[in-house]
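Appendix B.2, paired examples.
Example (i):
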Amino acid sequence: MRSALIFVYGVLCYVLFFLTFLYAIGFVADAPLPRTLDRPMPVPAGTAIDWVIDIALLGLFAVQHSGMARSGFKKWLTGWMSPSIERSTYVLLSSLALILLYWQWRPLPGVVWDVGQGPAWWLLYALSGFGWLVVLSGTFVIDHFDLFGLRQVWLRVRGIAYTQPEFDDSFYYRIVRHPMMLGFIIAFWAIPRMSVGHLLFAVATTGYTLIAVWFLEERDLVAMHPEYREYRRRVPMICPWPRPAKREGSGLTASGR
């Protein structure tokens, strides 16, 4: 019975994540949804409190998302919780942090750029859609169901011990080390009409992504997978620029960025 409840919990957390992810696409693209980055505009709009609320919501998500991913926090959490639902709980709280952001986000007025209704409009939305596609498909290139906790609860219900997925550098991961982060950056910036509120969101999330990946996630990956150190020397982090060739006899390679 306990294993069955754990499995149901993991499935419900996954369903909530997937619905939250789908809403994120419309939230960023200003689709006809109840709340987006640009709607509804509060009255009065663009007050100091609106800026404070938006920055606090972004900060809350960043602290939750990175804090719960640290090995020390995981060790503390699994000290009183079944390890099989640690990842599902992380997914659940990340989804709730995003739902809070959707609910309480305050659109900020002002237009930074607007390409109008023309070919550029379609091109930018197509590019944004491509970014979201890279994000979602990138999870399947590694292990989608492990990443979002389903594999863990499925193994628990079957009575099989959990093992970490092996390091995989196939497909997107041969071009950049963090293709999902690249996909998010593309999706957030490829927008035909960039409002001040959307610019705040894009700048904050891009900055958070770069800082979290460089200072936190990369360190964890090196600790988990010794081969990641060599992989980091060969493959760019986020920008898919070709690496300069190693100078023969010099023993020098490109940096990890």
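Example (ii):
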Amino acid sequence: MALDSGTTAWLLISTALVMLMTPAVGFFYGGLVRKKNIISMVALSFIVFALVSIQWVLWGYTLAFGPDIGGFIGGLQYLGLEGIGTTSPDAAYPPLLFVAFQLVFATVTMAIVTSGFAERVRLSAFIVFALLWTTLVYDPLAHWAWGGGWAMAFGSLDFAGGTVVHISSGFAALAVALVVGKRAGFGQYTMEPSNIPMTLLGAALLWFGWFGFNAGSALAANDIAATAFLVTNTSAAAGALSWLLASWVRGKPSSLGMVSGAIAGLVAITPAAGFVTIPASIIIGAVAGLICYACLLWRQKSGLDESLDAWSIHGMGGLWGALATGIFAAAAVNGYSGLIEGNVQQFIANAAGAFAALAYAFIVTLILAKVVDMTLGLRVSEEEEYVGLDLSQHGERV
């Protein structure tokens, strides 16, 4: 197939947009931690980007998109990107560009997981964990949904990463938080966000980058990309407003709550972006804001220290989005019908894909975190935690 310059240009732009999301996660998280840990949280996202970039081109891509092995993982045919070139008989864009596009998805997913390590991670152990997690959790899940694995064969729809990116990272962060334990002093005194404007900036960059994340997943500059672009924005706006109103009922309408609702709406529409109508996206986003806010309140009440809320926003928002895709998929958009149009099988397929990803990501992450913790020690010493990770891990301060 001849290369199409419009499609190639759109995918180049989309890849750059999604790349921006990884440091954006760092800014979003950095503003939520205490001042002595801002540099550490932002740095983790940059480290993840560099680390996963190398992992992906050496062996990650082939595990995700190599020839199917038992519906679980890809083979090693593309190890080191062997045989991946600039032209293909099956695509209107260079195969190497598809590698790059998928690379930035892998990096932002691992960046989201850093929520579970906030303010207490030993950098050397984190690097080992990140390599293991991307290889043993992210790469198989990407193969299941997009690389010809069992979920794809079963008919589970995941347009841009509801299961692969958000369910996996959200429930992985929860597992990590359970292993490393609470921060020293958590629950005994207030740990207020140090820089809410930084978090708002991170949210704005995430919202901006998400257009490449979702619309770019059409892999063409076409009507599906246009639909995905608009429903992405609409769902984000609905999520922002529903969370804002819910928090207003309970007290003050916080800016932090508003942008958290926008992220919840973006997460929920991700698996559905190429399959649902604009009215459906309003419902998906609004419900996501309420569900994720309720999960955050439960997390606070339970005393669980996953305090940057990857689980409540990405994990639970991704779960709702995957189920909502099976409910609201409309044949008029992309040929797929959901539960509302009478296709029960589509809902079953999506539920199966979502809960399988949830269980796999949580259990394998729990095992990996325990192994790394027992061998290298995931957590810094009490003294290092007291001083702050900016100084103890990086020798720097804001």
